[in-house]
Design a protein that fits this description.
The complex is a heterodimer of chains A (146) and B (75). Chain A has 146 residues and is mainly beta. Helix content of chain A is 6%, strand content 34%. In chain A, the strands form two sheets. In chain A, strands 3, 4, 5, 6, 7, 8, 9, 10 and 11 form a nine-stranded antiparallel beta sheet that branches. In chain A, a hairpin with a 6-residue loop joins strand 5 and strand 6. The relative contact order of chain A is 0.15. Chain B has 75 residues and is α+β, with helices and mostly antiparallel strands. Chain B has one domain. Helices cover 35% and strands 27% of the residues of chain B. Chain B contains two helices and three strands; from the N terminus they run βββαα. In chain B, strands 1-2-3 form a three-stranded antiparallel beta sheet, with no helix packed on it. The longest helix of chain B is centred in the C-terminal third of the chain and has 14 residues. The chains are: A mainly beta (146), B alpha+beta (75). At the A-B interface, strand 6 and strand 7 of A face helix 1 and helix 2 of B.
Chain lengths: 146, 75
């Protein structure tokens, strides 16, 4: 995941800060912002996101809105759930980074990932969007601990 | 709501770049064909609404929940 390594580099002239009740203040470089021209489904007005690493939560990461920092999603690399996800979803891993959104719950057996509608990041253009796949065998609520 | 009637084979044009064509009618099911720029998303309504609902649930993040779960997941 070399693409994500760049998010760990810090420059000092283009720094931005957002505040989130779960993380406190998050400082990041402006150039890690990923534009989402159509937002995320249900949140179409949120057009800028960042992906942050959280060591305590690995392999999960956070997709957080820059404009509405309280809006964030826990995300996961889908190959960790479905080995051939990229092939089955029809995305070239050289061009795209895919993430599935996690729906959390207090009960572990109710934690699910949305395999049906992944977040797709075009690494070349640095653009993000959420797509709904045609694949019949991918569910909106796929329970991780079935 | 704009209401238009179309026969099989007829189309509607939305804005100037989206075309919807009635391909087939069978019983109470209609097959529609869509031609649109690749940046235009087109979804079945009930699937779209299901994803909206799931995203809204998912946006209620609890870092402590995830921390505990991450430990389990790694095993």
């Amino acid at each position: 995941m070399e693409y994500l390594e760049k998010f760990q580099i810090k420059f000092f002239d283009d720094e931005m800060k957002i505040k989130n009740s779960q993380f406190g203040e998050v400082e990041f470089d402006e150039n890690i912002i990923i534009p989402f021209p159509e937002g995320i489904i249900g949140f179409e007005d949120l057009k800028r996101f960042i992906i942050i690493h959280d060591e305590d939560c690995e392999p999960f990461r956070w997709l957080i809105s820059v404009d509405e920092p309280e809006v964030g999603f826990a995300i996961l690399e889908p190959s960790l759930v479905v080995q051939d996800y990229y092939v089955r979803a029809g995305f070239d891993p050289e061009v795209y980074a895919l993430f599935v959104i996690v729906t959390l719950s207090h009960e572990i057996s109710k934690i699910s990932v949305n395999l049906k509608a992944p977040v797709v990041i075009d690494k070349v253009k640095n653009l993000g969007r959420q797509v709904i796949l045609e694949n019949a065998d991918f569910e909106v609520s796929y329970f991780l601990f079935g | 709501m704009l209401v238009l009637s179309r026969k099989v084979g007829e189309s509607v044009i939305i804005r100037n770049d989206i075309k919807v064509t009635v391909l087939e009618i069978s019983g109470n099911q209609i097959k529609l064909g869509f031609e649109a720029p690749s940046n235009v998303s087109i979804y079945r309504e009930e699937v779209y609404e299901r994803v909206v609902k799931e995203n809204k649930l998912a946006s209620k993040i609890r870092r402590d929940s995830l921390k505990n779960f991450a430990k389990e997941f790694k095993k």
